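COMPLEX REQUEST
Ligand: zinc ion
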Amino acid sequence: MALLSPSMLSSNFFNLENDVRNLEKAKVDMLHLDVMDGVFVPNISFAFPVIKAIRKNTDLTLDVHLMITEPHRYIKKFAPISDYLGFHFEAGSPIAETLNEIRELGCKPCLTIKPCTEPEEIFPFLHLCDMVLVMSVEPGFGGQKFMPDSLRKVKILKEEITRRGLDVLIEIDGGINEETAPLAVEAGVDVIVAGSYIFAENMEQRVKKIKAL
Ligand code: DX5
Ligand code: ZN
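STATUS: Structure written out below.
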């Protein structure tokens, strides 16, 4: 069974409480929170006050996806409001040091790769991660088309994680719907992020469908 982490980027910010309560009822596994700085990605989203408000009001696991440059400068501020805390391999931070700092601060470290990065590049850091995130779109916006090359990367990562006997989850993010989710799970994905698909309509049914994979 796949774990589901709905991306709150597609939620109704005018009634966030309603969306969070519905996701709790539908028994999602985590909430995925996309932080964008307008520099690492061309878009700007939300950060501390919004995540803090969610943290204060739900027991769901929070899966924070930083799409910001030099994320190491902000780890101390995000750690108290995150469970999984992820940053990009390409974002200009010292990788091992940042992963270690996340763990020291009591969070689960997650290393994320953009479509331009090959999975082998993060092999040296896998033992420091609780999760790796493979982007299946260019980060920055919800509602984009799934890039099938991400499945090849998932397979390579899965093989390496299994070969080394590591306990690292593989997450996929971008363009996930009922057609692409089964392909992702088949390739070895453990955690599915889905934004526009989950929030478009029939949230409860769609959550069930993905979690059953
Ligand atoms: C994109 C974000 C995603 C986004 C996914 O940069 O990282 O989490 O919300 O949205 P969908 O599922 O609509 O592609
Ligand atoms: Zn994301």
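REMARKS: The mean pLDDT is 98. The radius of gyration is 16 Å.
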